[in-house]
Design goal:
The protein is an alpha/beta fold. It is about 30% helix and about 10% strand. Among the domains are: about 210-365 and about 380-385 and about 405-420, 2-Layer Sandwich (60s Ribosomal Protein L30, Chain: A); about 530-630, no CATH class. It is globular, with a radius of gyration of 25 Å. The protein binds guanosine-5'-triphosphate.
């Protein structure tokens, strides 16, 4: 058996190691950080930042920063990004001290709520000012969370895009592909957290672990950076026989690379293979050969190998790349060129080549060629609509023919790679066929109808105004605000370039519109917890438990947060496991579809001690809040 000489991967003794810091912001960021903390595989400073002291109190990160303590009084931002931003502004000196002096700052947040969406851009700005490389890992909300959250997430994304050196976007909608349809939403979140934690772990390991074939920050940034597009990430880890092939298979199954499909369009692909002391040359070679069947010749491969004793007898494969918006639109709008099909006979550069030149340029980039126009109709995809312009729903594709792609964005379309080495096929290859070539039937995870939310919209106001506006009430709906209409959201096409990127395939395409226009759905108020509960008389306030900061002071009775402050006086057990004493479950209202989302009564594992963050008199009725409540909703 051939083994690597591990001596060659030792760093020069006088070369300082890269200092990395991972900042988790808000509820989602804190959950991911908890997972990383428990894994104990990342050598980085972990910092949790939140406005909500109850979440901070349970966070496992060694360093915690309460954002805007005086402004927020220990309460979450209630879904209001302005409050989250102001809270971060109030605490910017603490933030600066916490992240100063690091070479790389990873920022992890769930976009759509108040703290993460508002504070993350501020923190990214501070990190950039301290000359750190800023990598942002963010989630976009589930579509069922409502249009308001999506819009807030898009705003935050636009701001982050300007400040981050690289941005890995996880669409929660796609996380559904990681689990079985019958699994509860808690499992979806847990799986999503795990994937995000893996990405952070993989990226930070790549830059901090000495490797046989070392990847540098420039490699990583070039693989991750895209001015206006989407990062692709796949990670797989496996043990036992065929552990290399199995790890690669799992990495290719990642929903973030569309089950391997998106790799066929990448110009640069970073591949990192790591294993314990038993990692062999043959295993690495086999993984690279296998990967070569799914990557076109012209892709520039940045290849790294590391022996990491912490992996034990496991092998991990990390794939990182990015696709520009134009490429994504091209994929969505046109039938895939033949060179997107699995390239079963295409050899990859041998490992010897790779080790000889690190990073490895697998093959010279092929000269761009005109887009393949006569490809077989392998996939029928909806045409890409113009970005962010409300327009009538585009008519479904009439027949499975390779329709010419309409120009989805103002920029000139990127040239398509030449359809080289395209295996001749007598019959059209469906996506399922394509997956069959990769995996056995029972290994293909059922695909949820994908929907991307990576639109990048107009410029945001400056992050650092001279005088920040006074804090408004969290999540208070304004008169001008659009009503919360889930039905309309599901049905309506929100045409945007990025939506087009992941336009559903024929099997998921909605039914054609009926000839007569359906009556407009009734406009509903945004659901509140009051819709389900009615107050009972005479609650007796109990002494308030202390967390990491001074007890929140009650706000004026006019504030919707007043009820939250009052509720924090209740015993923790009541908060976590039973309805508050002053509440009784009310009769089920007729319009509560958002609540009928299949919450199971299983808890969130190690997060089970997390207190609920329900604003009983407020507006904070998001999914994570219900998850933290862990209360089985009875009808
Ligand atoms: N993948 C994943 N996404 C989450 C999780 N928790 C929340 N999210 C997503 O992140 C968005 C923001 O939720 P939070 O992070 O709880 O909100 P926040 O940033 O703390 O803001 P406030 O609660 O308003 O202070 C939600 O709309 C969800 O889409 C989680 O555990 N995993």
């Amino acid at each position: 058996m051939v083994e690597y000489d591990r001596h060659s991967q030792r760093e020069e003794p006088n070369k300082p190691a890269l200092r990395t810091c991972i900042v988790g912001i808000g509820g989602a960021g804190s959950n991911v950080l908890d997972r990383i903390t428990l894994d104990r595989t990342v050598e980085a400073q972990l910092v949790c930042m939140h406005t909500d002291i109850r979440v901070l109190g349970h966070a496992m990160a060694p360093t915690k920063i309460q954002l805007g303590a005086e402004l927020m009084r220990g309460i979450g931002a209630g879904g209001d990004p302005d409050l989250g931003r102001e809270a971060a502004m109030f605490s910017r000196e603490e933030i600066r001290q916490a992240i100063e002096g690091y070479d790389i700052v990873f920022i992890c947040a769930g976009l759509g709520g108040g703290t993460g969406s508002g504070a993350a851009p501020v923190i990214a700005e501070i990190a950039k000012a301290s000359n750190a490389l800023v990598y942002v890992t963010a989630t976009m909300p589930f579509s069922f969370e409502g249009r308001r959250r999506l819009s807030q997430a898009e705003d935050a994304l636009t701001q982050l895009q300007k400040r981050a050196d690289a941005l890995i976007l996880f669409e929660n909608n796609r996380m559904g592909e990681l689990i079985l349809p019958k699994d509860g939403i808690q499992k979806a979140f847990a799986q999503a957290d795990q994937l995000i934690a893996q990405s952070l772990r993989a990226v930070s390991t790549i830059v901090s672990t000495p490797g046989l074939v070392k990847l540098g920050l420039d490699d990583l940034t070039s693989a991750l950076s895209t001015s206006n597009g989407r990062c692709l990430f796949g990670f797989g880890e496996a043990r036992g026989q065929n552990r290399g092939a199995e790890a690669l298979k799992r990495a290719l199954k990642s929903p973030l690379i569309d089950q391997g499909r998106l790799l066929h369009q990448t110009k640069t692909l970073l591949v990192h293979i790591a294993g314990g002391e038993t990692l062999t040359l043959m295993e690495v070679d086999a993984v690279m050969k296998q990967l070569g069947r799914h990557v076109p010749d012209h892709t520039h491969i940045l290849f790294g190998v590391a022996v990491d004793a912490r992996l034990g007898d496991a092998i991990s494969v990390t794939l990182i790349s990015s696709l520009g918006l134009t490429q994504l639109n091209t994929i969505a709008a046109a039938a895939p060129p033949a060179n997107m099909l699995p390239m079963t006979d295409r050899p990859m550069p041998s490992l010897a080549d790779a080790v000889a030149s690190a990073p490895l340029a697998a093959a010279p980039v092929a000269a761009p060629a005109p887009a393949a126009t006569q490809q077989p109709p392998a996939l029928t995809l909806s045409p890409a609509p113009a970005p962010r312009v409300r327009a009538p729903r585009p008519a479904p594709a009439p027949a499975p023919v390779a329709a010419p792609a309409p120009a989805p964005v103002a920029a000139a379309p990127e040239p398509q790679p030449a359809a080289v080495a395209a295996p001749a096929r007598s019959a059209p290859l469906s996506r399922d066929d394509s997956m069959d070539l990769l995996f056995k039937d029972d290994e293909i995870i059922s695909l949820a109808a994908p929907e991307a939310h990576t639109s990048f919209i107009a410029d945001e106001p400056e992050l650092f105004p001279e005088a920040p506006a006074a804090a408004g009430l969290p999540d208070a709906p304004s008169a001008a605000e659009p009503a919360y209409e889930e039905e309309e959201y599901y049905d309506e096409e929100e045409p945007s370039a990025s939506h087009a990127s992941f336009a559903p395939e024929p099997e998921y395409e909605p039914e054609p519109e009926p000839p007569a226009p359906a009556p407009a759905p009734p406009v509903r108020e945004r659901l509140r917890i009051e819709d389900f509960m009615t107050p009972a008389p005479a609650p007796a306030p109990a002494p308030e438990p202390q967390a990491v900061a001074p007890a929140p002071q009650p706000r004026p009775a006019t504030s919707p947060l007043a009820a939250v402050v009052a509720r924090t006086n209740l015993p923790a057990e009541d908060l976590a496991y039973a309805p508050p004493a002053n509440m009784v479950v009310a009769k089920k209202p007729t319009n509560q579809e958002q609540i009928d989302l299949g919450f199971s009564d299983q808890d969130r594992g190690r997060f089970k001690d997390t207190e609920p963050a329900i604003a009983s008199g407020g507006e904070d009725l998001d999914v994570p809040t219900w998850m933290r409540l862990k209360r089985k909703l009875k009808r």
